[in-house]
């Protein structure tokens, strides 16, 4: 299949998703009660998170919260590139099974293009299962390798993420100002990198590639400060990750796991808008191939999300990813459309 036909196929899929989400969102957008439900949830969340609130007898209203957090590109609750401790769409208290959440994310990384389809499902309000398919078009890396006399055999990679996260500590548990705490295990499988390595005569194996699969382990803490900035909520997150992935797994996995830090700051200036900054530390599991596979840089992501209603969120993304293989991706623009059923 040619690069042009692959691109055309994915554009068609994107169009279908956008139309489908617009149809699903239509009934909610038509009524005025969505904004009222959203405001009531925000008021409730602020009161529950405030540490000086002593009246715990207020009944929780039967309203659905806003569609937060977003979907990380790896297929779990968070920002675009890092997790937060809140699970996605946990459902009403006491529910065994919540309804699923889906998202489509596109990020233009210069010559490289990333498309993500993700879905999450929560059990018992705290156990989150997630899956994401990442389709990365490698762009100029394919051409640069051909100029060097090497043939990748394909111009894209597919990376599958299977995630299990447990929110084992509720925010403000034991009547103490504690953060929410969530532990995660994330299995990843790259269905393309083995064939690419063989086509390149073992080039990736020569710099540290060992497996087409790997496991990340995460521990995440999140705390909402309901009136920190101009009387509006700020959500702070910090966490640790243990991973053996090269560029999240797009170029395979090494043998040794590296410990890294990740975190985010989210701010809600008005009820329907969420502004975010994320940081993800990166380590280098591989050696370099000069001008073709360079060292990894830390990732930064800025986001602006519109909470359309209590089910739909549309987010604009701006990523600073530094070196990705052979090129820089320091002005990467993206879009996420997320829908909670």
Explain what the structure shows.
- With 341 residues, this protein is α+β, with helices and mostly antiparallel strands.
- It has one domain: Porin, CATH 2.40.160.
- It has 4 helices and 16 strands.
- It has helices at residues 3-30, 33-49, 140-147, 193-199; strands at residues 70-71, 77-78, 101-109, 112-123, 127-137, 156-169, 180-190, 213-229, 232-245, 253-270, 273-280, 299-307, 312-320, 323-324, 327-328, 332-340.
- The strands form 3 sheets. A 12-stranded antiparallel beta barrel has the order 3-4-5-6-7-8-9-10-11-12-13-16.
- A hairpin with a 2-residue loop joins strand 8 (213-229) and strand 9 (232-245).
- The protein is elongated and about 60 Å long.
- The relative contact order is 0.17.
- It comes from marine sediment metagenome.
- Pfam families: DUF3034 (PF11231).
Question: How does the SSE layout of this entry go?
Answer:
Elements: H1 3-30, H2 33-49, E1 70-71, E2 77-78, E3 101-109, E4 112-123, E5 127-137, H3 140-147, E6 156-169, E7 180-190, H4 193-199, E8 213-229, E9 232-245, E10 253-270, E11 273-280, E12 299-307, E13 312-320, E14 323-324, E15 327-328, E16 332-340
Antiparallel strand pairs: 1-2, 3-4, 3-16, 4-5, 5-6, 6-7, 7-8, 8-9, 9-10, 10-11, 11-12, 12-13, 13-16, 14-15
């Amino acid at each position: 299949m040619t690069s042009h036909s692959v691109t055309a196929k994915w554009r068609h899929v994107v169009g279908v998703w956008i139309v489908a989400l617009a149809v699903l969102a239509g009934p909610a957008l038509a009524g005025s009660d969505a904004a009222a439900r959203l405001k009531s949830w925000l008021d409730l969340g602020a009161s529950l998170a405030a540490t000086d609130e002593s009246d715990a007898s207020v009944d929780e209203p039967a309203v659905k919260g806003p569609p937060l957090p977003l979907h990380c590109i790896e297929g779990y609750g968070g920002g675009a590139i890092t997790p937060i401790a809140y699970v996605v769409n946990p459902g009403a208290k006491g529910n065994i099974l919540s309804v699923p959440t889906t998202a489509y994310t596109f990020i233009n990384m210069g010559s490289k293009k990333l498309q993500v389809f993700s879905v999450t499902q929560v059990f018992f309000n705290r156990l989150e299962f997630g899956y994401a398919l990442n389709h990365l078009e490698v762009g100029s890396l394919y051409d640069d390798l051909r100029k060097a006399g090497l043939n990748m055999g394909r111009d894209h990679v597919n990376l599958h993420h299977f995630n299990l996260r447990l929110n084992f500590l509720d925010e403000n548990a034991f009547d103490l100002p504690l953060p929410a705490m969530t532990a995660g295990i994330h299995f990843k499988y790259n269905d393309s990198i083995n064939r690419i390595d063989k086509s390149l005569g073992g080039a990736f194996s020569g710099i540290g590639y060992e497996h087409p699969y790997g496991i990340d382990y995460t521990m995440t803490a999140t705390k909402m400060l309901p009136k920190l900035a101009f009387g509006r909520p700020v959500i702070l997150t910090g966490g640790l990750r243990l991973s053996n992935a090269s560029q999240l797994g797009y170029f395979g996995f090494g043998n040794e796991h590296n410990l890294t830090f990740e975190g985010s700051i989210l701010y809600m200036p008005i009820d329907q808008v969420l502004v975010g900054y994320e940081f993800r530390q990166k380590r280098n599991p591989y050696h370099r191939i000069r001008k073709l596979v360079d060292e990894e840089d830390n990732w930064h992501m800025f986001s602006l999300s519109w909470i359309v209603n209590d089910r739909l969120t549309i987010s604009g993304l701006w990523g600073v990813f530094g070196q990705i293989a052979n090129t820089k991706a320091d002005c990467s623009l993206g879009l996420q459309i997320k829908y909670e059923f």
